[in-house]
Design a protein that fits this description.
Layout lengths: L1 H5 L4 H5 L3 H19 L10 H11 L2 H21 L5 H78 L3 H29 L7 E3 L1 H18 L3 E5 L5 E5 L1 H19 L6 E8 L5 E7 L27 H11 L4 E5 L5 E7 L1 E4 L7
Parallel strand pairs: 2-4
Antiparallel strand pairs: 1-3, 3-8, 4-5, 5-7, 6-7
Helix pairs in contact: 3-4, 3-5, 4-5, 4-6, 5-6, 6-7, 6-8, 8-9, 9-10
The chain binds adenosine-5'-diphosphate and magnesium ion (MG).
Protein name: histidine kinase
InterPro entries: HATPase_C_sf, HATPase_dom, His_kinase_dom, HisK_dim/P_dom, HisK_dim/P_sf, Sig_transdc_His_kin-like_C
Enzyme class: transferase
Length: about 350
């Protein structure tokens, strides 16, 4: 939209802000000169729209309005300074240029505002679907939290007894177990907080394998209750990806929850998450299931918003996932799995090689 895609080569140059006013001024001066020396029949001034389009990309509304006003002033000034050519044609050309500049500024500003609104709406929707997903997982998360809490109770009571019985060594060991369980509970809460955060965080050098392991702890209990064998086959050495962990976790959770739903009515209930390096060095994440499969699913539309084949479905999970993956420069796709079920893949651009541990 607007100057963003139409001027890709100028982007890096103009991105360096101090250069922007100088470049715009030079461009305006060149157009002004050309407009003044050529005769009145040639509407050189319409080229000011280029300046307006660049300004929309880098300036706020006021800045764009000022740039457009300056261009229009130069157009009129040049009309009065130009000596050669027929005046009526000059008036018409001048008017056309003025209208072109004004309309371009207006439309480009409107497009930029719509784009910003769409981004905002999408971020809100992503947040809503994250919270909805949490709602689906509440029971198993409560269970997951209950385990360390119950262990803390047990060890606390034991420590009290050891102390009363004059055995501080054993009491100390119980206290260590309490600390370990408390850490486990707080780790889980930390991960949940990420999902409920309103705005997504920032991109970091992400260890995808580690993120998948963390995510699996959120769904393991749910899978266990549904008698699903949840497995991970993680590549030994995977490069890191420059990515936002909250958003990528949202994609992984969407795919896993879909897979769990797909196998729910089946005899065999397998869900496997695989990571591997792709052919062009990217990271490929696959969520494969032995579920109902993709018969009756329109593969061309499966990632569209509100596409669902489930009576209670919202059809937003895959749409949000696609927008997240694409905003990371990756791709998402689906294909039937062998011998049955579905496989959903997404890729992330890889950065430098990472370890399997998490140091972020
Ligand atoms: N693992 C899967 N196996 C079979 N079909 C799937 C799978 N994942 C997604 N789908 C299809 O894609 C549709 C859209 O999924 P999604 O966007 O997550 O929305 P929802 O889960 O609310 O229906 C689902 O309704 C289903 O038809
Ligand atoms: Mg879904």
């Amino acid at each position: 939209m607007s100057g963003r895609s139409s001027l890709p080569l100028l982007g890096p140059l103009l991105g360096r802000r101090p250069l922007l006013p100088i470049l715009l001024a030079l461009l305006a001066a060149a157009i002004f000169l050309a407009d003044t020396v050529t005769n009145l029949e040639i509407a050189v001034a319409v080229f000011y729209v280029v300046i307006v389009l660049i300004a929309v990309r880098y300036l706020d509304r006021r800045g764009v309005a000022m740039v457009a006003a300056a261009c229009m002033t130069l157009t009129v000034l040049s009309f009065f300074l130009t000596r050669a050519g027929a005046v009526p044609a000059g008036v018409v050309n001048c008017a056309i240029s003025l209208v072109a500049i004004a309309v371009t500024a207006y439309l480009a500003l409107r497009a930029a505002a719509a784009e910003a609104q769409a981004r905002e709406a999408q971020a809100q929707l992503a947040h809503i679907t994250r919270v909805t997903m949490l709602g689906e997982l509440t029971a198993s998360i409560a269970h997951e939290l209950n385990q360390p809490l119950a262990a803390i109770m047990l060890n606390g009571n034991a420590a009290r007894r050891w102390l009363a019985g004059g055995n501080p060594d054993e009491a100390g060991k119980a206290a260590e177990r309490i600390v370990r369980d408390a850490e486990r509970a707080s780790e889980l809460i930390k991960r949940l907080r990420g999902l409920t955060r309103k705005a997504a965080g920032k991109a970091i050098w992400l260890d995808v394998n580690q993120l998948i392991s963390d995510t699996l702890t959120l769904v393991e209990t749910e899978a266990g209750r549904a008698h699903v064998a949840l497995r991970a086959e993680l590549a030994g050495q995977l490069p890191r990806a420059q990515a936002d962990p909250v958003q990528i976790q949202q994609v992984i959770l969407n795919l896993i929850l879909n897979a769990l739903e797909a196998v729910s009515g089946e005899e065999e209930r397998d869900v496997t998450i695989v990571t591997s390096p792709g052919r062009s060095g990217e990271i490929v994440i696959e969520v494969r299931d032995s579920g109902c499969g993709l018969n009756g699913v329109e593969l061309d539309h499966v990632f569209d918003a509100f596409y669902t084949t489930k009576p209670e479905g919202l059809g937003m999970g895959l749409a949000i996932s696609r927008s997240i993956v694409e905003s990371h420069g990756g791709r998402i796709w689906a294909q039937p799995a062998v011998p049955r079920g579905a496989a959903f893949f997404f890729s992330l651009q890889a950065g430098r090689t990472g370890s399997r541990g998490s140091d972020q």
